[in-house]
Design goal:
The protein is α/β, with parallel strands linked by helices. The chain has helices at about 15-30, 45-50, 120-130, 135-150, 160-170, 175-190, 195-200, 225, 230-245, 270-275, 295, 300-309; strands spanning about 5-10, 35-40, 60, 70-75, 90-95, 110, 205-210, 210-220, 250-255, 260-265, 285-290. Strand 9 and strand 10 (about 260-265) form a beta hairpin. Bound molecules: manganese (II) ion (MN).
């Protein structure tokens, strides 16, 4: 069998990159030929984590060849996965998202658990398989947990994520709060990102009933600067819908400090957004206090509203 590719989702976030690296390290420690790959560019936050722990970024691939053995981490929806997945040989899924319509020819290993981060599951696998966790891998997995749980502030965060992060921080030799804030700050630096890049960086496609939507998220320490560009952002979102055939584009502008999101949107039906969040959605954005999680506080609400529309 050729080398197994372990990949996170398209437009990879820190969990998708770091869980792929961590799971590949675990597999290799068990004598399995596996390599982490990625389906898109590395974000500033992820780059900060990789640099800090001197880890190499996974190799970028465009698609999977037929029969290529593949393991999916941090996602399971084919629309978010590697092109060519249907013809590849899917071996395993390790994830913490909703199930999203995958069919397989053969029985496969699946570990899906509703915790805050895929890396939490993978750190647990190191423990139960009695594999040695290096400082580098511990740091990389820790970074994913900090990112996905927004340093434990996200409602997706569980006690298990926290406990795991504490253990990983002590192996990696970092102060959890200090390193965590520094990493989140690096990721929240918009720098020279254009509106088109902001909209595409951390974005995932979904189907809500018969509607095709793309839901993006950008997390910042202060939303003032980014919301000042709302018109440019909505223009970029209109373009994205036209180019890729989405009915709706939504962008969560998440304020890490305030623990809230401004949900910016374009497209139709706006009624779907109004119903999902119980707000007047006739404009181009709504304010959602306490909302930080796409997976738990945006996608299920839209899914449910679409079923009733
Ligand atoms: Mn994740």
């Amino acid at each position: 069998m050729s080398k197994i590719f372990i990949t996170g989702h398209k437009n990879p976030d820190t969990d998708s990159i770091c869980s792929a690296l961590g799971y590949a390290a675990l597999k290799r420690s068990q004598g399995v030929e596996a390599v982490a790959v990625r389906l898109g560019s590395i974000s500033k936050e992820t780059q900060y984590a990789l640099d800090f722990f001197q880890a190499e970024a996974p190799e970028l691939i465009q698609s999977a060849e037929a029969k290529q053995p593949v393991i999916l981490v941090d996602h399971n929806e084919p629309a978010q996965s590697v092109d060519g997945l249907a013809e590849a040989e899917l071996l395993e899924i390790v994830d913490h998202h909703r199930l999203g319509g995958l069919n397989t020819a053969n029985p496969i290993f699946v570990h899906i658990e509703p915790v805050g981060c895929t890396a939490t599951i993978i750190a647990g696998m190191f423990e139960c398989r009695k594999a040695e966790l290096s400082k580098k891998t511990a740091g990389v997995l820790l970074s994913a947990i900090i990112s996905d749980t927004v340093l434990f502030k996200s409602p997706t965060c569980t006690e298990k994520d926290k406990k795991t992060a504490e253990k990983l921080a002590s192996i990696a030799g970092v102060d959890l709060q200090e390193y965590g804030m520094a990493m989140l700050k690096a990721g929240a630096d918009l720098g020279d990102l254009t509106p088109a890049q902001i909209v595409r960086t951390d974005s995932k496609p979904f189907s809500f009933g018969s509607y095709k939507a793309i839901v993006s998220q950008i997390s910042v320490m202060d939303t003032t600067d980014i919301l000042a560009q709302k018109n440019e952002l909505t223009a970029a979102m209109q373009e994205l819908c036209a180019a890729e055939g989405y009915d709706l584009a939504l962008l969560m502008v998440t304020d890490i400090m305030e623990e809230s999101s401004e949900l910016v949107f374009v497209g139709e039906p706006k009624q779907l957004i109004a119903d999902a969040f119980g707000k007047d959605a006739s404009g181009d954005s709504i304010y959602l206090p306490g909302v930080m999680s796409r997976k738990k506080q945006i996608v299920p609400q839209l899914t449910e509203a679409a079923a009733k529309l």
